[in-house]
Structures are given as C-alpha cells and as structure tokens.
C-alpha cells in the first residue's frame, strides 16, 4: 500500500493520457482528452489550470481525484494512486465544482456539515472549532438553517467551499469556483482562499475562465492545449510571452493629438486616439509600469477627466498562446 507523502510533490503526473470512445453515427471514434500530461505541483503552491473549452481540464481533475481511470501514464496525488487509494485520498483533498453541488439539496447547510464531519471522522471538538472558523470567515451564519436548494448562488458557493474544506484538506481543487458570482461574492471568496492558504499552507489548484481569479489567487499558471501543457510559468511570464497587456483609456478635457509621443515609459504602447485626440488608449505591461506612473506621465501633458482600465482576459490570452503554437 502506498503511503501519504508529506514532503514530495502534492501532484505529480507523467505522460498522463485519457481517451474516450464516442459514437459518430454507426462508427466509433476516439477522442483524446488528455495527452502526455506532465504536471508537478509542490505543497503550498497555488496553480491556475487554464485552457479553452474542451482542452482537457475537467478530465485531468477527474483523474487526479480518482473519478476517472487514466488510459495511460502515471498519476500521484498526495503521494497516493487516486483510483485504488480513493478513500484515503478523500481525507487529504477537497473538491469544489462551481457548476455542480456536493451538498445535500434538501438539508439545511448545518446538517450537511454534520454529515461531512461524520464521514471524515472528525472529533466533535475538532468539528466544532473548524465549523465555527468557517462560518465566521465565510459569513454563513445567516443561512445555516436554510435548505441548500433555497440558497442564492453566492451563498451556495460559500457553503460548498466550507463543506469541501471542513476536514482541512492539504489540497483543494476548485473547478470554476467563481462562475456566475457577482463582484463582491467573488472578492470575498478569493479573500477567504488567500487566508486559508496562508494559515494552513493549503495547496490550491483551480480551473477558471476569470483572469481575476488567477491574478489574485495563483503564483503559477499551467495552460493546456488539446490535453497537454502549452505554457507553464507565472502570469506575468505568460503575459510577456503573448503580450497580454492591460489597457488604459483616458478621456481628456481638451484634445491632445500627440499625447502618444510624449508619454514614453518602459512597457507602454500607444494604441491610438479618437475624437481628434480627446480619447487615447495605452497598452501597458504591469510588470514594467504601474498605472499610477503612466497616469502621472500623461497628466504632465494633459488634463485627464476620466479613465478606464481593462484587464487581459483568460480567453484572449489562451487564444494568443494557441495561435502562436499553430
Ligand atoms: N465522458 C466523455 N465522453 C466522451 N468525450 C468526453 C467525455 N468527457 C470529456 N470528453 C471530451 O474530452 C475533451 C476534453 O474535455 P474536458 O471536459 O476535460 O475539457 P475542459 O477543458 O474541462 O472543458 P470545459 O472548459 O468546457 O469544461 C473534449 O473534447 C470532450 O468532449
């Protein structure tokens, strides 16, 4: 029997592959969902696992957690083999699916927590203290006695996260955790995950289409394309590779058509102007120049009335990486 490794990587895969056989009319066809995937994630890391729809993210997560058997290759999660050791692995891993509930639909949230505490065999003291910690941090108080099916999406996601983290897993896998949430709920959930990680050294692996999740939560991104790794590194590194800059748009009090030539800072590109120079767009690399420095440089030459900052979006970054590979 394999043992739970406390110092090796939390996730390690070599040449991981998974295919599906699908029917195409009368014929059968093989779909390769994951192809030769090599991943290594160390304890305490927070990794964003991104890619287009159908790139193989969910299939990977299912293999990491023992829901799906790999067609070929090696996989270890917390030092265990996910399929044969699935029950032992469940003690060390918490999984949150943004689009699928793991709570008991007709039960009040607090009863789901009691059931989960029993399933994970937490001691009554441990269950009580962890529960109060989560209730406080995720602000669950107001709806603990409400059946899950009556919760709003934001409330349900907080309850899902609490349920997945009740047993203090070493690894938390989140599949689109902020999908459909409003700005405030997203922010709260991200803040909670950051605190949890700092206090308990929890490893995070999350799939997302929201660049804000990656920016605020992850030290590293792994980008998959057709089931294998297309990029691995920091978000800044990814932005450098494909030029996913932020864009600052400024509206001026008076037209200044040549503003693009006067604001010369490292990592800033003037993208053009409209309205005879009333509105200008600047793409900038946040690693090299802050928005404050750029604004200060512009204000020396023009009176800025209004401004907007656009963040790079995951789909756009992914498209550019794919385009560069094909
Ligand atoms: N059970 C299945 N049967 C047949 N094909 C499947 C099955 N599950 C996944 N696939 C196929 O495998 C490929 C990878 O799918 P997967 O769901 O892992 O992608 P994904 O990156 O998670 O996409 P999304 O962002 O849309 O969730 C797709 O072509 C998908 O159609």
From TrEMBL:
<dbReference type="InterPro" id="IPR003439">
    <property type="entry name" value="ABC_transporter-like_ATP-bd"/>
</dbReference>
<keyword id="KW-0067">ATP-binding</keyword>
<dbReference type="GO" id="GO:0046677">
    <property type="term" value="P:response to antibiotic"/>
</dbReference>
<dbReference type="InterPro" id="IPR017871">
    <property type="entry name" value="ABC_transporter-like_CS"/>
</dbReference>
<dbReference type="GO" id="GO:0005886">
    <property type="term" value="C:plasma membrane"/>
</dbReference>
<dbReference type="InterPro" id="IPR003593">
    <property type="entry name" value="AAA+_ATPase"/>
</dbReference>
<dbReference type="InterPro" id="IPR027417">
    <property type="entry name" value="P-loop_NTPase"/>
</dbReference>
<keyword id="KW-0813">Transport</keyword>
<dbReference type="GO" id="GO:0016887">
    <property type="term" value="F:ATP hydrolysis activity"/>
</dbReference>
<keyword id="KW-0046">Antibiotic resistance</keyword>
<protein>
    <submittedName>
        <fullName>ATP-binding cassette domain-containing protein</fullName>
    </submittedName>
</protein>
<dbReference type="GO" id="GO:0005524">
    <property type="term" value="F:ATP binding"/>
</dbReference>
<dbReference type="InterPro" id="IPR050763">
    <property type="entry name" value="ABC_transporter_ATP-binding"/>
</dbReference>
<dbReference type="Pfam" id="PF00005">
    <property type="entry name" value="ABC_tran"/>
</dbReference>
<feature type="domain" description="ABC transporter">
    <location>
        <begin position="11"/>
        <end position="251"/>
    </location>
</feature>
<keyword id="KW-0547">Nucleotide-binding</keyword>
